Amino acid sequence: MKKLLLPLFVFIFCFAFVPAHAQSQESIWLTVSAASFKTGETVVVTVNGASAAPIQGITFQVRYDPACMKPVNAATSIPSMNGLSLPQIDGLVDASFASTTPQTANGVLAEVHFITLGACNTNVHLESAALVVKNESGFAAPMPGVTVDGQNIAVAISAEQGTSQDLPLLGTPLSLGDQPDGTEQASLSSGTAVMLALICILLLIGIFFLIRVLRSDDPRG
Are strands 106-116 and 146-148 parallel, antiparallel or unpaired? Predict the structure, then answer.
């Protein structure tokens, strides 16, 4: 009898444990509106999530090929979530949304709209993501134990010219196209360095001439 009870106990324990673990798991993953597109069409990349507890923010980075697609904007339909404007670099969409009050996060969290640029076989994937909550000290912090699915999602773009699409966003759009990329920032830094160099040269020339004038006025010279 004891030999029969032991396997039965183990079976009941495993059966009870596995579903409880699955229900409490928080996760974030990507989906794409279609697998193939024409040049000039809009690709909608959706950030999905599941959380048993309310959240007060989401943040994510979507990796893409800037030679194939151009990000336009992002948005979330979660009530009271406001977008935070962040610097963007080529190949990586960086978006964050925050709320002052806890919100339910199950299903679609946000959307990112891209415009296809030309014939290309490429991928998009979720580089990083987090659900944001308030910790015990009252500060914003990533929710622990969230699973991020970073698998590559294939996108095929043909050379055929498609129709431009002005697809509606889930909420207030967060522009992703007006931020300076890394190249523009580098150009700005180079321009600033050149300007500073010119100023230094002019100052040195002025000091040189000032010294000559002072020496010419010196009766000992």
Answer: unpaired
Residue 173, SS3? coil
- In this structure, what DSSP letter does residue 45 have? E
Q: What is the pLDDT of residue 2?
A: 45
Q: Which amino acid, 2?
A: K
Q: What is the mean pLDDT of residues 82-93?
A: 93
Cβ–Cβ under 8 Å, residues 127 and 62: yes
Task: Please tell me the pTM assigned to this model.
Answer: 0.69
Q: Give the whole-angstrom CA distance, residue 100 versus residue 35.
A: 37
Across 62-83, average pLDDT: 94
- Residue 142 vs residues 63, 83, 132: alpha-carbon distances, Å: 20, 17, 5
Please say if the pLDDT value at position 105 is more than 70: yes
Q: Is 138 helix (H, G, I), strand (E, B) or coil?
A: coil
Least Cα distance to 142 among 44, 85, 58 occurs for 58
